[in-house]
Amino acid sequence: MLLIALLLAPLAALHAADATKPNIVFIYADDWGWGDLSCHGNTWLKTPRLDKLASEGIDFQQFNVLSPVCSPSRTAAMTGRFPGRFGINTVFGVGKPSEMPDWLDAKAPTTPRLLKAAGYRTGHFGKWHLGVGKPTMADYGIDESAVYHGPGPKVGPSGNDIPNQAVKFIEANKNRPFYVNVWLHESHLAHTPSAESMEKWKHLDPRQQVYAAVITDGDNKVGMILDALERCGIAQNTLVVFSSDNGPAKSRENDKGVPGSYRSHYSIGETGGLRGRKTSLFEGGVRVPFIVRWPGRAPAGMKNDATVLTAVDLLPTFCAAAGVTPPTDANGDGDGENLLPALKGESVLRTRPIFWRNNGNKKDPDFWPDLAVRDGDWKLVTIFDGRKVELHNLKSNRAEDIAKDQSKDHPEIVARLTKLALDWKSTLPTKADPSCLAEPQEGEPEKAEPKNEAPENPRNVPFTRWDTNKDEFLTLEEFKAGQKDGPNLEPRYKRFDKDGDGKVSRKEFVTPPAK
Hints:
This protein is an alpha/beta fold. The chain has 15 helices and 18 strands. About 30% of the residues lie in helices and about 15% in strands.
């Protein structure tokens, strides 16, 4: 008996150690604005489950994603590195072939891989949008997955498929530590609100009704995850994080879609008074909700408006929560900071500057910046050559009101931050890593850099014209509308949709489909 006890002792110790490791649930919404929460002061959107989550934990008021669009934002959240370090500066399928890879480098550090090595079971359910190509989800350290805009088993963006899959994962792994990404569709278009939520908000005007219903559906899905944790008896040992990949999308008057699949006419999310929206480096595009619940560690009902957190802080912070040491690389330990003390209620001041790279819209006063840097309370936005700038103190001017631009009052700060931004940009790759490029498909030009500007692919012209909401994807409705509902359009659309995700990217469209 003594021998058996001695043999079992290490195993018992291992299980005891596992029991102390927190589960981690990272819920990442899509285009969900900072002001799209009733606990952030919204008067017509109701988010009771998220409000309750905030009341049970910490509502961080200054959380920034590192891009105002999907793929690079998610890259930062997964890797703890600025997305520009991988050449990922826009959504996959949009960048020029020599500048954008076709997928996130599978050699990049990822939270799932690091936690998997430490004994965690890892899952990812919902949107991926980090490329479709050679890497599998397992290559990124993910044990179980069901995704859209990604490789492997698929899940639909609408309905309850995403939370249902995540709940199954939670139930199956309730007796071991797990990490799971639950990356929701709400509130990205196409808007497909449930009949129940549409009925609930029928007293609102049509645009508010659709958007309120979408937010209600998203809030309910968060509730499904939280209920599963309670039902499994593991809520007390689970760190739950809710956030969004960027600010709310821009509404377009004539882009209405059809009932049941509404378009950007109904995208009326709110920034909470912040300037800019999705695709903008002003705060409305990059400051998003960040709510943390961690019973017994994170104080309940706390608002933290002092600590500045970013998406690149997630990897080192999650690793610290799990007792894992992040890896080092050419950038040292990455671009983020371990802000675990902030998740436990401490007010922590970050020590590193924050950088953004984007492709601004020079014609729009709220969307023009290409680069931005924040150091302390100062944030500078500029263009690639540094000749146009705005300087804002976010402590006194969180809305970045242009009338309060302080660039002329503080030339020394402008000079320092402009140099910081341009020097940082000079360290970023200008061409894609060849190992992250797909083999050319039949009829597709080689990805080698031409001596002169390559001739424009003629298919780009109709794609740009038909892509009415300018999200670089064609829905079936846009495809049909662009061709006046001609014959056999749905089968043709499906031939273009090579990865079967229900949308046609520009890259798919300009490559001739198989006959």
